[in-house]
Amino acid sequence: MKVAAIFLASCILFSLIPTHLSHEEPTVAPTEELMFAPMNEPKYCRSRQVFDGSCTDRGSPRMTCFLDFLGARSASEMPKNCNCTPQPNNKRLCECSVICTDCCIHN
């Protein structure tokens, strides 16, 4: 039984040796250039849309318009800095900054 345990331990140790003796760089390791590459900053544009109801239907006017934009559009537009303007006939004009269709400013 001792011989089998020693043999098994030896096999495991010898199977690890070639990986430690190898001086090659791993091919999947990210390079420093990729790790610290600048990201493209999203470019925001102002967008307007009219919705039914008052500016305080869902809390504050800013939150109401933010939630309206999220519900009516793709979340990838990432609305921010929303404003609400009351309109006649129980309508509200929402204006938010959203990511433009041309997306990003390249650094």
From TrEMBL:
Pfam families: SCRL. Its main location: secreted. It is found in: Secreted. Residues 1-22 form the signal peptide. Transmembrane segments: none annotated. GO terms for biological process: signal transduction. GO terms for cellular component: extracellular region. Keywords: Disulfide bond, Secreted, Signal. InterPro entries: SCRL. Belongs to the DEFL family. This is Plant self-incompatibility response. It comes from Arabidopsis suecica.
